[in-house]
Amino acid sequence: MILKIALIYRALAAIAAGLLLSACQSAPKLPECTDPIGCVTIPPGEPIKLAVLQTLTGDSAVIGEDQLKTIELILSRRDYQLLGHPIALQRENELCTPEGGANAALRVIADPQVIAILGTTCSGAAKTASEIMSKAGLVMISSANTAPALTSVEGIQGDNWHPGYFRVIYNDAIAGRTAAEFAIKKLGIKKAATLDDGEFYGQQLTSVFAQVFEDLGGEVVLETSLNLDANDMTPFLEAIDNADAEFVFMPITASPATRILEQVSRFPNLVDMNEQGLTFLVGEELIADDFIQAVEENGMGV
């Protein structure tokens, strides 16, 4: 929680700094706006409008709600005031999907007085929302998006970066490398499988993992995507068994991860492997009480 507060503080501080520069340059008569992306005039007593795009329903809501509550906590410490103006939040649910991100961003830019967006939770939602935001001349700062292509990949501008988009969290080019190094150097894994949810975030992260894992001498024996609506995980677990994988990297959400861990006991070869069972490495989305309570003893060793 302390880390999240610090990250969101950075985002809010960046917005406040921009507003402060404008305030310091104010004059009795407003100057003509010459900025190519336009200007927002906030009359005395009128609110500074910020939009919050977070995932507020579904598996990733635990992260989005945490983000929203942290933003509200920080603003409450300022009594929702900045530079003599009240702060108004427009809260939008981006649904953790590209379509949800686009729709939420369109609702935001419909109000020309909104100056910035805090969000999104999910990288897939940011992929579309950031493009819409950028064309409207806004600023968008995320403390949760980690997909490399949103900013840069190994120092090269990402395919999905748009002017005005920033993040104050690590890049999955780092996270994927760290996961691969942990598997090879710490656990001694030789054969690994990857599982993503078919979405932007998971695909980018598993791709980085697979590349680094093989660069370090490991073998990726299976790369697959999951049908999130499937209740029966047998096809995936059979593929893991047949591929002779020792390790599965699966940055997926809580519901499918829970079903996999509950059903892996049907496969004795996977349970008995190396006397410890198949090793799973999951993403930060599953650092949540609900997931831990759901998997119970099935989560031992994850």
What would you note in describing this structure?
The chain has 302 residues and is of the alpha/beta class. The chain folds into 2 domains: 2-19 and 38-167, Response regulator (Rossmann fold, 3-Layer(aba) Sandwich), CATH 3.40.50; 172-299, Response regulator (Rossmann fold), CATH 3.40.50.2300. It has 10 helices and 12 strands. Strand 2 and strand 3 form a beta hairpin.
End-to-end gap: 22 Å
Question: What is the average of the pLDDT values?
Answer: 89
Q: What share of residues are in beta strands?
A: 15-25%
CATH superfamily (homologous) name of the largest domain = Response regulator
Describe the sheet with the most strands. 6 strands, mixed
Helix content: 40-55%
**Weakly predicted, low-confidence segments:** none
Q: Strand sequence of the main sheet, in spatial order?
A: 2-3-1-4-5-8
Write down the secondary-structure element order.
HEHEEHEHEEEEHEHEHEHHEH
